[in-house]
């Protein structure tokens, strides 16, 4: 069965809360690009230590490789363990 991207957007990605969270992640990424912490296509992500993209405190942000930032152990509910 193929993914229904339109339905995914309507149910999750398009909700006001998720739009705000995505906007904050993008904002932090743009700030890191402007300050030279990362470069376009470098393979590095901006990791939020507490997992909250709304918390943009510099002490909460770490530059980490995308392969490490996107792979965490999960619990039985698919949340970060």
What would you note in describing this structure?
By secondary structure, the protein is of the alpha+beta class. It has one domain (5-69). 41% of the residues lie in helices and 12% in strands. The chain is built from 3 helices and 2 strands, in the order H-H-E-E-H. The protein has helices at 5-13, 16-35, 66-69; strands at residues 44-48, 61-65. A two-stranded antiparallel ribbon has the order 1-2. The two termini are 29 Å apart. The model has no long low-confidence stretch (mean pLDDT 92).
Note the topology.
Layout (H helix, E strand, L loop, with lengths): L4 H9 L2 H20 L8 E5 L12 E5 H4 L12
Antiparallel strand pairs: 1-2
The percent of residues in helical segments reads 40-55%
Oligomer: single chain
Number of strands: 2
**How would you state the average pLDDT, rounded?**
92
Q: State the helix count.
A: 3
Radius of gyration of CA atoms, rounded to a whole number: 14 Å
Can you write the helix and strand succession as a string? Answer: HHEEH
Based on CA inertia axes, which overall geometry fits? globular
Biggest β-sheet: count, sense, barrel?
2 strands, antiparallel
Number of domains: 1
Distance between the first and last residues' Cα? 29 Å
